[in-house]
Amino acid sequence: MSLKIFINGKLLDKDDAKISVYDHGLLYGDGVFEGMRCYNGRVFKHREHLDRLWMSARAICLEIPMTKEQMAHAVEKTLAVNSVVDGYIRLVVTRGAGTLGLNPDKTSDPQVIIIADAIELYPDELYVKGLSIVTAATIRNHPAALSPRIKSLNYLNNILAKIECIRTGHDEAIMLNHKGEVAECTGDNIFLIKAGKLYTPPLDAGILEGITRNVVLDLAREAGIKVFEIPLTRHDVLTADEVFLTGSAAEVAPVSEVDHRAIGNGRPGPITLDLKDRFHKYVRGE
Ligand code: PMP
Fold first, then answer.
1. What is the CA(24)–ligand 1 centre distance, in A?
2. Which of 38, 208, 214 best tests ligand 1's pocket when mutated (most atoms within 8 Å of CB)?
3. I need a surface site. Which of 65, 113, 134, 241 has the fewest CB within 10 A?
4. Atom 8 in ligand 1: which residue has the minimum CA distance?
5. What is the pLDDT of residue 285?
6. Per-residue b/e over 57-96, b at no fewer than 16 CB within 10 Å?
7. pLDDT value at position 83?
8. Residue 27 confidence (pLDDT)
9. What is the mean pLDDT of the chain?
10. Is the pLDDT confidence value at 286 over 70?
């Protein structure tokens, strides 16, 4: 059976799920999106993802043509029709079809798309040995140009950094901000552990406020770990005892090498593994 895609209230076969080539989502990356997980048939942090989608839309003056409740219902319907119990959900809202000019006022009908599919994680072995990552030469978008807080369809900034790590055979790329501080990775937030304390860049470092990031911060506090959201430099990363990444798709992913240097003893560290375990238990409601 072909995958069914939700577009504007209709569930269409994947091959028939199409939008206009005049859609400004395609022409200009004008739109917003979310990536969510479903565990044991429940959408993880559904409300938080919808809140972030609506915040992103508001930031780009895009009105989503349904309520959060209607969107949540549409997500549940898309999961059910595709029998997805454990998987990944992509929500996309485009500006809609317009003219060839930039003017968003000349577009009509924002397109609401929901895709529920299998999840593509890093291969299992990477969670055992840890990711090898590099610092990209491409810095994160300047927050005054395009705020990284907006999860927009324009991901070229991240894609350029991703190309750098792929071309050099690495798993992810650290992106610095315009001040030279560590911001985040191309699709994940970054955390360090030093002397038993947990550090992650603050929101004003120019990062996406990851929903996994926020859960991990809470889980760490619950575990009695001191947590600091403070500016971090590449030096802090290279001299950390442990490094890990968080994201809806990646969950908690240990990092064993940064810029060709081993982190700690070159294997995933004990606090990382403990938080990864706590996260897995949390998402499955144990
Ligand atoms: N940073 C960026 C740039 C991202 O695209 C993502 C999501 N893929 C994250 C961080 C992690 O966010 P979340 O935990 O909400 O998935």
1. 23
2. 208
3. 65
4. 187
5. 82
6. beebebebebeeeebbebbbbbbeebebeebbbebbbbbb
7. 96
8. 98
9. 97
10. no
The confidence band for 120, taking pLDDT boundaries of 50, 70 and 90, is confident
211 lines ligand 1 (CB under 6 A): yes
Q: What is the C-alpha separation between 141 and 156, in angstroms, rounded?
A: 10
The answer to whether the CB of 141 is under 6 A from ligand 1 is no
Spans of all domains in the chain: 4-117, 124-283
Q: Which fold has domain 4-117?
A: D-amino Acid Aminotransferase; Chain A, domain 1 (3.30.470)
In this structure, whether the domain defined by 124-283 belongs to CATH 3.20.10.10 is answered with yes
Q: List, as one string, the DSSP characters of 154-192.
A: --HHHHHHHHHHHHTT-SEEEEE-TTS-EEEESSSEEEE
Does ligand 1 have an atom closer than 6 angstroms to the CB of 212?
yes
Residue 151 bears catalytic tag: yes
pLDDT one-digit tens code per residue, 212-247: 999 999 999 999 999 999 999 999 999 999 999 999
